[in-house]
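Because showing beats explaining, we let one protein speak, sequence and backbone structure tokens together, and leave readers to judge.
___
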Amino acid sequence: MMIELKLVFALMAAIAVTPAFAAGNHAGGHDVMEIGKPGTKAAIKRTVVISMKEKDDGSMVFEPSVLKVKKGETIRLKFNNMGETDHEFVMDRHEGIQEHKALMQKFPEMEHADPNSIRLAAGGSGEIIWTFAKAGDFGFACLLPGHYESGMKGEITVAP
């Protein structure tokens, strides 16, 4: 009887902590951020095409690496992974990028389901539709281990 009770309590404890593991995929929680929120197709003002790739010298880049938008503007960001490895794009305030980078170093296989990010396999393409809500300086980066350090980062300036 005592062993059965211990098993029941162990099972209950495992079920109780399961949501903590689900948080490891970054699902949800970022729908409204300081940098903005997901936009709608009807509100798109323009499209910016961004390439992700490695260069012959070993560096990794986004092209373009600087984005300039206006507060309230909705942009379609179209991504093409022209490289030979997976890449991701995460946009946030600079502190948020550094926090996310530290987390990715601990959990490099973390899956993302955030509207402010996209991960693409080599040769893949995708898009993010985003409304920039606040004026200021923000950033974007590939936070897969080693990619940021290889130069895969950029700046977003949101004008008032």
Summary: The chain is about 20% helix and 40% strand. The two ends are 68 Å apart (CA to CA). The beta strands are 36-38, 44-54, 60-63, 66-70, 74-81, 87-92, 117-120, 125-132, 136-141, 153-159.
